[in-house]
Design goal:
The protein is mainly alpha-helical. About 50% of the residues lie in helices and about 10% in strands. A hairpin with a 2-residue loop joins β2 and β3. The two termini are about 20 Å apart. The relative contact order is 0.11.
Length: about 250
């Protein structure tokens, strides 16, 4: 397919904008947004550049997002980078997987994957999230002991890492405490534009960005079922109760 020079230039400008801002909102850059949504050639060029950079380009609602693939440590995060950002110094793999489990627990508590919107509640308080993490880890470790075959998720190891963290009722931000562990995890998620963390109220709210990702990407049927299996939740629901089946675009 032959492209006009103006289409190539516009596609390059849009992709560069996405590299810089990670998202293109209609309300911020209406000309570029319309060029992407209304011109198939420009859209194909932008997506082609995304593929070359190991990224996906998706439009959810009136926002176009650049989403690095899981193995893209240049535009995204490597395991080592994530561990350094959200875990204590000299963290082990148990600490890292505990942080990922905490994020999954937060998502499941805020979203249920059903209805016109997958969000099931507007906010959760930090203390409640802490209790949920502890309860799910203990339930998982108990199932691990009762089952003859391993589930593939090392709940006992993550529980050991979690219980190694001290509790501090004064809300310490030391990474060696449960409160500090969650604090730095929430600050990281807030920096990525995924949550609003209201520290004075100990309240966690979702952003429109996270709502869009959950509605159209993360909570498609396969991904949602996988998350529920990881957390040991009951997955025996009728097909009509399952979340949406795929991406918006």
């Amino acid at each position: 397919m032959a492209y006009e020079m103006e289409e190539i230039r516009t596609g390059q400008e849009i992709f560069y904008y996405l590299l810089e801002h990670h998202e293109l909102k209609e309300e911020d850059e209406s000309v570029m947004y319309r060029a992407y949504t209304e011109n198939e050639a420009v859209q194909n060029l932008v997506k082609s550049q995304g593929e070359a950079a190991h990224c996906q380009i998706h439009r959810y609602g009136n926002v176009v997002y650049l989403i690095p693939r899981e193995d893209n440590s240049f535009l995204g995060f490597s395991k080592a980078q994530l561990k350094a950002a959200i875990c204590r110094s000299n963290a082990t793999d148990k600490d890292y997987y505990l942080s990922q489990f905490a994020i999954l627990t937060l998502l499941v508590e805020l979203f249920d994957g059903q209805g016109s919107s997958s969000k099931s509640r507007d906010y959760i308080r930090v203390g409640e999230l802490q209790n949920c993490i502890s309860a799910r880890l203990r339930e998982g470790a108990q199932m691990e002991r009762e089952r003859e075959e391993a589930s593939g998720i090392a709940f006992s190891n993550m529980l050991e890492a979690y219980e190694a963290l001290r509790s501090d009722e004064k809300g310490s931000r030391a990474r060696t405490t449960k409160e500090g562990f969650l604090y730095y995890l929430l600050i990281f998620l807030q920096k990525q534009g995924l949550i609003d963390y209201v520290e004075e109220d100990e309240m966690i709210k979702t952003t429109k960005k996270l709502d869009n990702f959950m509605d159209w990407n993360l909570l498609n049927q396969n991904n949602y079922s996988r998350v529920k299996r990881i957390l040991g939740m009951d997955d025996r629901q009728d097909s009509e109760e399952n979340p949406r089946g795929g991406d918006h675009e």
